[in-house]
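Good day; I would like, with your permission, to put a structural problem before you. What I wish to show you is a protein chain and, alongside it, a tokenised description of its three-dimensional fold. Thank you for your consideration; the sequence and its tokens are set out here:
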Amino acid sequence: MEVASLLATFLGTSLFGLQLAAPCSAQEPDSPAPMNVLFIAIDDLRPELGCYGSTAARTPHMDAFAATALRFDRHFVQAPSCGPSRYALLTGRSPAASGALANEALYQGATKLRPAALSDSGGRPVAQSLPEAFRRGGYHTVCIGKISHTPDGRVFAYSGQGDGDHELPHAWDELATPFGPWKRGWGAFFAYANGEHREDGENHRALMQFTAEKDTDLPDGLMAAAAAQKLRELKAADSPFFLGVGFYKPHLPFVAPRADWEAMAGIEIEAPASPPDLRVPSTHRSAEFTRYDSDLFDGPGPRLPLDAQEAITARRAYLACVRYVDRQVGVVLDALESEDLADSTIVVLWGDHGWHLGESGVWGKHTVLDRSLRSVLIVRAPGVTKAGSATASLVASIDLAPTLLALASLSEAPMAAPLDGIDLTPVLRDPGRAPRTSVAAYFGPWGTVRTDRYRLVARRTDNGWAEPRLFDCSTHPDPTAATELTSADLIQRLLEQLPR
């Protein structure tokens, strides 16, 4: 049975209150000018940044941005995979309500967004996605890079076959991703230097490559430069803008300029914190990681488990890519400042999910554990957020849609489906606020609930949720024997938060 069908059968409706937005009202003549939105998405970025306490990461640009914004220390995505996580954010819907758990959810199957414009029962147009709502609200919308699942907003197979339909129908005025010598979206996404890529038919499968000399020798550098130029153009436009910039790194393969690899050589990098042989729920064989080849691991494909030095080398490669993408974020934010747009632009920096760097024996995402579900979220809303603040409030990616619509005074914009998230504006104003007591996430047969202290993980069966396990995340983010609990009452209370 398809995953989406299983989910629809067992999950029913969302945990969170659903509210259908009303039609958008006209802006008063004396209302303040609407705020622009710069939404920066980074693929596979776990909170491995200096501003999140990492001693190994070299991320001065994202750290400097955090010093002007609100950092969310406990932000969790709704699915630990690119497509369904982005589906949840862009639609504001929990997988419990949508059934969207596949990378192709936005353009395939029952959950795909329909290419025809939608209207409500009164004949008024409604939006299927967040950027479409902004576009219908009078914003000029631009996509550069990976905002939805495909790397340029167009639907093509890895091979390049396909019709190139918009993955988010009616969302973007411009799809402006530069391809460079890679010529197409998936080529740029799986890029190596000199126009080579994983899907070019030449069997390029290196796990890591650090030979490029300039940032613009690789796709993320080209996208940063394109975004900076686009900001200059948007400044001169008459309408507010929603600019989405989606960087590819540190997604596999680990590719960045030579200087980033060399810069990490003298940095102390620790081996994974948790043993690799733990039998914890939803862990896997790291298939995405091991499909690549590397001479560093003595033969075709990395051997698992990696020994301590091999693990440090792989971590160094990830952090080199993080250093590279940090610099590209800096290019975009510098352009925002130089064009005097910072005070009129809401900026969101978001990681689409976390990533295991060997913890619990996993290299990659696709678990329903903290390492895979916790990711970066930093928000600057001029006049709302306090510079350099942080919050420990539990928040979810589905909360961003209602929050951005509210901040842009588009909270009454009609959406095609109810929003499952919570408006975080009160938290932006007062980081001590805690509107949530839990965040749920789903992947494959797994469901999970994260509270302030605990994470419950259970497996879905024909008879409901089975094999529940409870972990105390206050002592360690990775499941270990020392952190597992057996409280039957607490397990039952948390199981009741997973829809059947």
DSSP finds 14 helices and 21 strands in the chain. The CA atoms of residues 34 and 408 lie 6 Å apart. The longest helix spans residues 308-338.
